[in-house]
Specification:
transcription termination, about 50% helix, nucleic acid binding, mainly alpha, Transcription termination factor MTEF1, chloroplastic, transit peptide
């Protein structure tokens, strides 16, 4: 066959066999019968990191401070209600945040309960402003406190409003853990008329009452003398050791040079202002060369004090039994 078809050349690209002999099989054309080897570009096994453009800065979301729709109206109603009785809602929640979560009905029930004891709007405004915690105290908790004041502390009904006005914090105290233990402690040291000193009932026995008794014992008073002083003047329990006892006792001993036994008889000394009463009057006595007993020195009015000074300086000394008695040695009889 190669002899009859000598014109078929593998190197002749224009061979007519490709066009005239369509009946030939594929294998007659080696160049077409071979599987094609497709050559793709090879990629490196190394990972190529293409930097991404920086993300635009995310705008922070500003949290909404407005109350949810379901509570928004309740929030406004509470604010309007408290405003109607003269209370600043935002000032109250600043000092006692739980008011925010207290329902309007609970606030109203507490105010209504206090109103039932004949507290005026003005009194309620003062009480609740001084002690906002009362607003979140339910009537079921307040009632045992009023019962305790009536039955155990023996507070007269006519004096009840005065007691609460003087010490609103009583209405936030627990009867079992605070009010009753303090009452028993005061009675045990001989203060029988606790109803005259009800403000002390809100004090902690361990943290306030006992430390003050111990301070006077450290200063040289016996336990009996100390208890006698507190029994004579229970308001001593209300004063600060650092801000009251220490500076006044130091001035009494160092500057005035007086004997501690005078304080046993007149513990009211600690109730007078050091700067406005004790020091000025003591200096006047120093200038005049006289010394009054503590009650005369501090209890008398300014006019009466000046008159006594003049009497002592411009006349002969009175008898020792006279309240006008004065001496440079400060003898007390």
């Amino acid at each position: 066959m190669q002899d009859t078809l000598p014109f078929l050349s593998k190197n002749n690209p224009f061979s007519p066999s490709l066009s005239s002999h369509h009946h030939h099989k594929h294998h007659d054309f080696p160049s077409l019968s071979r599987p094609r080897n497709l050559h793709f570009p090879t990629f490196s096994s190394k990972t190529i990191t293409i930097p991404l453009p920086p993300k635009p800065p995310k705008i922070p979301e500003i949290p909404s401070i407005s109350p949810p729709p379901s509570s928004h109206s309740d929030f406004q109603e509470k604010m309007l209600y408290l405003d109607s009785i003269g209370l600043d809602f935002f000032s109250l929640i600043q000092h006692h945040p739980p008011i925010i979560t207290t329902s309007l009905n609970d606030l109203k029930s507490t105010v209504d309960f206090l109103t039932s004891f004949n507290f005026s709007t003005l009194e309620l405004r003062r009480i609740l402003s001084m002690c906002p915690e009362i607003l979140t105290t339910k009537p079921t908790t307040l009632l045992p406190i009023f019962t305790f004041l009536f039955r155990e502390a023996r507070v007269n009904g006519s004096d009840l409003k005065k007691v609460i006005n003087r010490r609103p914090r009583l209405l936030t105290c627990n009867v079992e853990t605070q009010l009753r233990p303090t009452l028993y402690f005061l009675q045990n040291i001989g203060i029988s008329e606790v109803k005259k000193h009800t403000s002390l009932l809100s004090c902690s026995v361990e943290n306030k009452l006992i430390p003050r008794i111990e301070y006077f014992q450290k200063m040289g008073f016996s336990y009996r003398q100390t208890i006698s002083m507190f029994r004579r003047f229970p308001q001593l329990f209300n004063y600060s050791v650092k801000e009251n006892y220490e500076p006044k006792l130091n001035y009494f001993v160092v500057e005035m040079g007086r004997d501690l036994k005078e304080l046993k008889e007149f513990p009211q000394y600690f109730s007078f202002s050091l700067e406005n009463r004790i020091k000025p009057r003591h200096q006047c006595c120093i200038e005049k060369g006289v010394c009054f007993p503590l009650p005369v020195l501090l209890r008398t009015s300014e006019v009466e004090f000046r008159n006594r000074l003049e009497v002592c300086c411009n006349s002969s000394l009175p008898f020792k039994g006279s309240p006008l008695w004065c001496t440079k040695n400060c003898d007390i009889e």
